[in-house]
Amino acid sequence: MSIKENTNRSLATNTTYLYIKLAVTSICSFFTTRFALQALGVVDYGLFSVLGSIVSFIAILNTIMVSTTNRYIAVSLGRGNINDANKYFNVCWSIHLAVALLTALVAFPIGHWYINHYLNYSGDIHNASIVFDITVVASLFSFFTVPYNGLLTAKENFKTVCFPSILASIFRLTIAYLLVNHFEYKLFVYAFAVAITTIYPGIRYIFFCHRHYREIVRMRFVRDRQLYMEILTFSGWVSYGAIAYVGKAQGAAVLINLFFNTVMNTALGIANSVNSIIGMFAKSIVQPIEPQITKSYAAGNKDRSEYLLVLAIKLTFFMTFVIATPFLVDCHWILSLWLGTVPEEAVVFTMLIIIDALVDSLNAGIKSIIFASGNIKLFQIVPSTLKLASIVVAYIVLKMGFEPYSLIIVYICFSAIIVIANQYILKRTISFDNRKIFKKSYIPSLLIVILALPCFVLNVPIQSFARILISLIYVVILIVLVGFTLEERKHLLRYISGLCRKVTGRK
User: What is the mean pLDDT of residues 329-334?
Assistant: First the structure.
């Protein structure tokens, strides 16, 4: 069996694990949102949306080190150097310890300052402070588990990554369900549940890695100052990108609260819940591919890494489009079925955020191949600056009195610009032939969208469920027949037949 066949089988297996996780966590997430909204009410649920945004800003450094740790360990493993992997792991863990202490010193005063002076909340402000403290403590603990998560990802051990997340999702759903008719201090109980589900997966990762990857996670103090400087320099560039990413993702909630109220934040929070589920589907496609892109590039197999990049973009867009289709066909019906009462602006927020996610999915895998090259400066500067600019423009638009959803329209425009900018960066950084992406990924994706447009614009007088089902079948057929090449269709059939044999127990 060739290396390519073996790695393709690994991609298929890891994707299966991720989809099992995705199926469970998506169902749990939908019902958790419904029960939590019912139990907490629109005001307190909106509070969670705002405070979650603040914590996301605080956790920027955590986001930075996830990418850094994963990159250095994956490159070491791609070169077959376990000793280097252990050195990089310990350096990253030491940096995480320092980052956690620094974040604790900064997070609490800044968070309480924002809550006391700027939070637009009609409830008891003291309750908001307590919820914030609980959430920050959980986030700080997760700092220590990032190197372990990075190692599991680099090792492509997605089975271990998935199982704790499934249990955490089930636990959060259970608490949200019980909140509807039980517990007096619902806001605090839900906050503790969220904190526990944040901490638990990391604890499992730590125990697993120390049991199975002892040679890599063996603790030692690395005195190589140059190594610390190398990782910190790399992290410095990553930090700019992380600030921009979190700023765009969570800045919307802060801006909405600044110009409107927590009730409007609830509508945005619901839209973000839908988007996070769609994002998980998209991530489940690219997540097994990313470590192989990094390892292939580090091993000098440029053709393989470029092939995987093109595949990642196309598959991510197709999967995102499939999951987005029901919402684009009849978003109000789905939200009504899910929530009962649909908050004002939730439908338009949801549809626009989904469109933004579709545009952004065209960048899948680009980060991995750029990070593998180590030449990340241009990639971190250009798209990140554009993301930060989108926040400024969105603020100006809302300040001028435009509708709340105008903010997301601004985001969509900038996301399209970033897709174009990334093509220049690929060409400049690694001399990538952009025609490969346009011919094999972007043009098939655009063709699928054009052919599927009638499903979204024609108001056919049939039941909503029937419209959605027919549209889904049509989109899937389009993707298989128009989006995939003949060779890709053969791989898909082999994968499905292999999966069926596993399920039925046949050889």
Answer: 87
Residues 6 or more apart from 140 whose CB is under 8 A from it?
Answer: 100, 103, 104, 107
Distance CA 74, CA 90 (A): 14
- Cα torsion 471, 477, 480, 481: sign: negative
The 10 Å Cβ neighbour count of residue 498 is 14
Higher pLDDT, 190 or 18: 190
The DSSP letter of residue 435 is H
Q: What is the number of other CB atoms lying within 10 angstroms of the CB of residue 482?
A: 12
Q: One-letter amino acid identity for 257?
A: N
Radius of gyration of the chain (CA): 23
3-state secondary structure 247-316: HHHHHHHHHHHHHCCHHHHHHHHHHHHHHHHHHHHHHHHHHHHHHHHHHHHHCCCHHHHHHHHHHHHHHH
Query: At which residue do the structure tokens 């019902």 appear?
Result: 31
**Confidence grade of residue 495 (pLDDT, cut at 50, 70, 90):** low
Q: How many residues does the chain have?
A: 507
- Tokens standing for residue 52: 């979650």
Sign of the alpha-carbon dihedral angle for 292, 427, 317, 445: negative
Provide the 10 A C-beta neighbour count for residue 69: 27
Give the residue-averaged pLDDT of 52-59: 57
Backbone angles phi and psi of 375, in degrees to 5: -95, 80
Q: How many Å apart are CA 367 and CA 376, to the nearest integer?
A: 9
Q: Quickly count: other Cβ atoms within 10 Å of residue 358's Cβ.
A: 22
- Which residue, 420, 152, 131, 462, is CA-closest to 329? 462
Q: Can you say whether the dihedral through the CA atoms of 63, 64, 66, 70 is positive or negative?
A: positive
Q: What is the pLDDT of the chain when averaged over all its residues?
A: 79
> Per-residue pLDDT tens for 380-428?
888 888 988 988 898 898 888 888 888 889 999 999 999 999 999 988 8
Cβ atoms < 10 Å from Cβ of 486: 6
> Could you tell me which residues come within 8 angstroms of residue 84 by beta carbon, excluding any fewer than 6 positions away?
76
Model confidence at 4, pLDDT cuts 50, 70, 90, reads very low
- Cβ–Cβ < 8 Å for 393, 319: no
